Amino acid sequence: LHCSHSDEACTCGQLVVASRESQYKIFHFHHGGLDKLSEVFQQWKYCTETHLKDQQLADEKTCMQFSIRHPKLPSEETHPEENSHRRLDVSAWLHHLNEAGQVEEEYKLRKAIFFGGIDISIRGEVWPFLLHYYSYESTSEEREALRLQKRKEYFEIQEKRLSMTPDEQKDFWRQVQFTVDKDVVRTDRSNQFFRGEDNPNVETMRRILLNYAVFNPTIGYSQGMSDLIAPLLAEVLDESDTFWCFVGLMQNTIFISSPRDEDMEKQLLYLRELLRLMHPRFHQHLCALGEDGLQMLFCHRWILLCFKREFPEAEALRMWEACWAHYQTDYFHLFICVAIVVIYGDDVIEQQLATDQMLLHFGNLAMHMNGELVLRKARSLLYQFHLLPRIPCSLHDLCKLCGTGMWDSGFIPAVECSGHHPESESCPYGGLVEVSSPKPGSEGKKGLKTRDVFAFRK
């Protein structure tokens, strides 16, 4: 048995009942009561005894253990700049713009969004910048001209779709439209914006997705894309603007809906390496499970749908904004994945869960995790990564695209070769293979000191 609180006020959480085979039954509490239940269990004799005094008792009367989990992030484990930025509201946003409407010091704006998020009232105005529809250097006039030009382009794309030959239409229906039609009517229907029968916003979402498949036939449409576009439309509102924001999302963010196998494999490679650095015990458990464990099926949905099915929309969108800010890394979503594992993965190790049980464990956590806590932890892990004196060459690309700000003092960590380069004899990143004997005059530093850096999590 264990009780796990997902918020600091002990009002939400879950009760897990597990047999020795770890077959979970989970009861969720949304409005309090779990803290009272945990008090009852603490007073219950069978729950507090962890071993049998009388060996004659039958096995079914034994209770192995009872625990209460309450995920917290002590202040010493947070990013030192946590709480340094308020949520970006109208006045703060206007402060970032000059008289011509250009964003001044784009890096400062991205940093503010990374730490504080964006007020709902101005998301529709700011998101197009983050999604590369508007450039930060553009003036208000240039943006208005761009919108008109892009609207014309959008309707040309739609016209192309509507003027297909009957054979092309049949093919398009089979490959794209059939799935889109099925998906849009069940996407975000609890959101007021898409609720009800014959909702025109659902039809707008459908048109955008169909037009996107014509615009980018290589990607076309795959399930999950409606999950990504729905919040964009609900905030940006204009059909053409939403379409071009979606184009930007699909082109410029590292995690995209249903990427090719090799794209996903690259993500998982980075994630495995980050876990090896930041949570070695969990990584060892994956290795012990063999190839199945290293496939990390439990986190595929996190990456494909950008955490949208794991957290309530308000928290998921904060995560999107933090990722879109591209502050210090283009791969912040992977640090969010690691944060989830660090905060909620201890049971996996303690109970030595198999691959399918691990999938069940993390699946059951969906919508019951503390999104703000996960975000704070992810920012803290990025900060710790930033402090590393050396990084393995396998994670070199996590720093490659982020431009200004990753190591803003001019310091770049040394690259250490992890020794897996089947296609070349030497390390393509110039990483040095660890040597066992220290050079004369050196302090004898050897290997990666990452275990020490991340030891604070315990």
Structural class: mainly alpha
Largest sheet: 4 strands, mixed
Number of helices: 20
CATH architecture of the largest domain: Orthogonal Bundle
Work out the helicity level. Answer: 40-55%
User: What's the average pLDDT?
Assistant: 83
CATH class of the largest domain: Mainly Alpha
User: What name does CATH use for the topology of the largest domain?
Assistant: Cyclin A, domain 1
What percent strand?
A: 5-15%
Distance between the termini: 23 Å
- Biggest sheet strand order reads 3-2-1-4
* Count of distinct structural domains: 3
Unreliable spans are 50-58, 405-411, 435-458
Q: H/E element string? A: EEEHHEHHHHHHHHHHHHHHHHHEEEH
Shape verdict: globular
Write down how many β-strands occur, each being a DSSP E stretch of 2 or more residues: 7
Radius of gyration: 25 Å
CATH evolutionary superfamily of the largest domain = Ypt/Rab-GAP domain of gyp1p, domain 3
Summarize the structure.
The chain is mostly helical and 458 residues long.
Structural notes for this entry:
The protein is mainly α and about 450 residues long. It folds into three domains: about 1-70, no CATH class; about 120-250, putative rabgap domain of human tbc1 domain family member 14 like domains (Helicase, Ruva Protein, domain 3, Orthogonal Bundle); about 260-400, Orthogonal Bundle (Cyclin A, domain 1), CATH 1.10.472.80. Helices cover about 50% and strands about 5% of the residues. The protein has 20 helices and seven strands. The strands form two sheets. A four-stranded mixed beta sheet has the order 3-2-1-4, with helices on one face. Strands 5-6-7 form a three-stranded parallel beta sheet, with no helix packed on it. A hairpin with a 7-residue loop joins strand 1 (about 1-5) and strand 2. Helix 6 packs across helix 8 and helix 11 packs across helix 12. The chain is globular, with a radius of gyration of 25 Å. The protein starts with a strand and ends in a 5-residue tail after the last helix. The model is unreliable at about 50-60, about 405-410 and about 435-458 (pLDDT under 50). InterPro entries: Rab-GAP-TBC_dom (IPR000195), Rab-GAP_TBC_sf (IPR035969). This is TBC16 protein. Keywords: GTPase activation.
